[in-house]
What we know:
Order of helices and strands: H
Radius of gyration: 59 Å
Shape: rod-shaped
Helix content: over 70%
Distance between the termini: 200 Å
Number of strands: 0
Structural class: mainly alpha
Mean pLDDT: 95
Number of helices: 1
Amino acid sequence: EEQIESLQKALQEERAKLKAVENELREMEAQLEEERESNEKAHEATKQILTTRYQQQLSDQSTQFTRLLDEERESRQQSDEKWKKEHSEMEEKYGQELEQMTQTLASKEKELQEKVQVKDDALKQEKNKLNETIKKGKEYIH
């Protein structure tokens, strides 16, 4: 009987130890669940922070890219306007010079034609005089 009581007491002690272990296990499971939930919340918070940062970086890059495009467009427009202005000035300058040269050439050509005409007329008169002289000389000889 003592042995039975001793075994029952040992059994009760083992059951108490088992209950204590079960309670400890439940507490550990509860802590684990709390840690998992905490980790999930931290993960979500980190994910949200990284998403926000990424979106901000994309926004910043987009803004910078747009600014660079605008600067390039403005630079190209200024360059085009400068070229057009210079081209227009050159056309005006050289157009005027060409017009002046054309007028000068036309007036010089007219002068030369007049001089040629005067010389031509003088030569014709000289020829006529010579022909008259030859004619008079022939008449004199005959």
